[in-house]
Amino acid sequence: MSRPLPDARSRWLTLLVSALVASVLTGCPEEKILCTSGLDVCGSDCADLQGDPFNCGGCGVRCGEGETCQSGACECLTGTPACGEACINLATDARNCGACGNACPADQVCNAGTCAEACSPGAERCNGGCSVLASDPLNCGACGVACPDVQSCHEGRCMYDVVAACYTNGQLVGIQAGTDRMGPRRQFGSAVQSLAVWDGVVLAADAARSVLSQALAGALGTVVEEDSLGAVASSPNDILVDPPYVYVLDSVNNTLQVLKREGPAQGGGLGLRTVGQVNLGANTSPQVIAKRGDTFYIPLFGNAGSDFQQGNAVARVNVSDPERPRLVDSIPLTGLDLKSFDGGTTMALPYAAVSTDAGVYVALTNLNPGNDYLPNGPGMLARIDPADGGVHAIDLGAQDCLNAGDVQAVGDSLVVSCLGEAQFDTSNGYRAKAVRATGLVLVKDDRPVASYALSPGCTGGPEQGCNLAVGGRLTVVGNAVYVTDVNAGRVFVVEVRDGTFVERRGNSTPDAKGAALDACPVDPRRVVSNAIDIVAVP
């Protein structure tokens, strides 16, 4: 097997998979229950005492109706303030309509916080109040069906708005958009590497077990279906849903696997079956999938074992016949002005891609293979013209962005996540001890217009009260960007407003409710906590 690129992510993944597999093989579940970081033993299960409304702050401590568990304490859900000792929805409660104690007359209903003769069009009467069953989390799909913890009501089904995956400990965690409250962390496999969502089902590719697992988006801890991804050594780096098909990209086996929905399956799964596959070539190390019409654009990173001869390019795969995908060609990323810092070698190794009306944009790491794969030029984007395959380079600015790692569209702009240039403590689990130029860059009309630093002025490590962040993958909900931290397991939330970034949850806000979300707690035995992927639930 060829040697993978010894960059930050490859080092982390190799180390963490080995440690995780070793802990599973050497554990003794017949003697006691072993829980991963952030979870505690409650009876015969592992529970998140910080976020589980059925075990809030302690085993068996249940939160009441209309409450959620946050930081180990029960509190009212957003939109349901306390009236006495109960959490009440003032918009729909006929006894507390618009304000605590404001009861509507017996012949009226509470409609949007006002007593009225009848409900507004589109709303239905539920226990004296008016609710839109498709979106009301207290009457989701039917009167009296309340969504648990911080789930929202999506077209009559209770689900989280955002789901993050913790590679280090195999957990999933749901997040509510807008409030940015976290639900309880749930154990889900061993080493979840990539995520997607389809029809209320979360698909999670597990690198340690080489399976594509499914969970309902409102029950993240329960596997409802598993499908094989082939070789045990696979690295499922990306999942694309294009109904009725699911595509899984493997960056070690260099394959694009096609699964088709034939469900519904027993237990609520999608009922997937593998129907096709295409090999993208030895040592290509494909990263993600960007779809444009019937063509997939797939960045090929390559690997050090082959001197990146098969990487540094973007493959085009035709999927007009989804069950027989066909590799058409590869667009080389050579010949670009990569703005080398010292005039020496630098390579435009691609990590991610997104398709927009203007073309296909590819995030470039810009590394020097002759200098321990450190950045030797600014983080960059490449814009590919689908008509003729022409490539144009976009400089993201060395002070703000090194090692560009992900790119997504936000309205008429692009947001780029930058891994930065990190120094690692090799004696302590490859924890980052210094990092620069990691964060987000906003791009409009092919030029950077704003930036956001994930670790401003943060030096010295956690012993000095500073957990360094290293930017990872991102997802977008409205104008809010959720970006993962692959060093300390957090999720940062930053809004795009008027061409700039405004922090909502990060390092700059002093109080706990404004801090970055501690999605994936650090396991003291492994030090690094890798929040590897994040996805928005439609």
Structure keywords:
mainly beta, Thrombin, subunit H, 44 strands, globular, disordered N terminus, 538 residues
Outline the structure in words.
It holds the Pfam family Stig1. The chain is mainly beta and 538 residues long. Among the domains are: 38-76, no CATH class; 190-278, Thrombin, subunit H (Beta Barrel). It contains one helix and 44 strands. The strands form 15 sheets. It has a four-stranded antiparallel β-sheet with strand order 15-14-13-44, with no helix packed on it. Strands 16-17-18-19 form a four-stranded antiparallel β-sheet, with no helix packed on it. A hairpin with a 2-residue loop joins β34 (404-410) and β35 (413-418). The radius of gyration is 24 Å and the shape is globular.
CATH fold-level assignment of the domain at 190-278: Thrombin, subunit H
The number of distinct β-strands equals: 44
Task: Report the principal-axis shape.
Answer: globular
The largest pleated sheet is described as:
4 strands, antiparallel
Strand content: 35-45%
How does CATH name the architecture of the domain at 190-278?
A: Beta Barrel
Q: Helices and strands: which structural class?
A: mainly beta
- How would you write the strand order of the largest sheet? 15-14-13-44
Note the gap between the termini: 39 Å
Radius of gyration: 24 Å
